[in-house]
Fold:
Amino acid sequence: MRYFASLTNNIKLTLSGHDTFPLRYGWLKKVHDQIEIQRKSEKFDNVFLQDTAIADFGVGKNMLNAMRFWSTNTGMIRRDNNTYYNTEGHTEAGELFDNDNLDITRQLNSFYNSKVFFDDDGLDPYLESPSTIWLLHLCLVTNPSLVTYYWLFNINTKPELGREEFARLLKEFFKDHGLSAPSDSTIKKDIECLIQNYTTKTRKANDDFENVLEGPLVELGLLNRVNRQNIRALRGEKNSLTLNVFVYALINCWRIHNEAADTLSIEMCTYDECSPGRVFMLDEDAIIDYAEQLQDSDYSLTWTQSAGIRQFQITNGSSLNAIFDQCVEHMRDEDYSH
Structure:
């Protein structure tokens, strides 16, 4: 099933708005806190457009735009008319997006939202757990509107890419799906921002402290720079990716592709769009390793091999919703135990 192709009528391409600033540590928490201050004071203005915004956030205008972009596109804030709100578990989906446009806030649930992570007593306000970073990444790269990210992680099959080839293939992808491509400059800047998000920077002698700081997504070890022009996908085992985050992504993939079924093939889990294998750059051996870990867990999931068919299977008369609840409980107890 070609998931992206089934959505093209509702996709609003998003390749700008970050002003080429990658996501940085502290930004999501800073935005969360400023919106909470506004809420408690019962002000309902655009927190990013207030006269004091640059002083409140402690950054320049372009960087402020980037903070808004990443907070929005990780699903941590939502906009209602002219006001921004932190997302929370009980927000109704209908309040978050209209039916004529895909929106990343479709990823929100009782666990994945700003209140759970970034409240002062939240699970991970300062991104100390790799699991939070994996979940933020999952949210970004399964959003078809963020097409540069979606294409690289879900469509591309080349292990190594140069910047110009990346741009050319992306434009071909737009054309193949009847989508209007933005300007070459916009595509180039979005690709550059993606590379900065996921790879260690080449440092210059005169770089100031702010310029050499790397963002949280670099920690995931998904891409590296081969040289000034080329990047390489680092496919294989991911040491910081827990079984619980794997199961979370597996449920997300299952719901997209085969929600009514009680099985999901290993191949689909490895190679299909929005699959754990795609979004986390896991090879088949790594997927099998997580499948074997399930055997020693209390998840209502197992994997089977029969007549050459390998698949994940729901057990104990359970359901995806019940397994999701198991996953959240395990994440709270294990991935976020302090």
About this structure: Residues 251 and 320 are 7 Å apart (CA to CA). Residues 243-258 form the longest helix (16 residues).
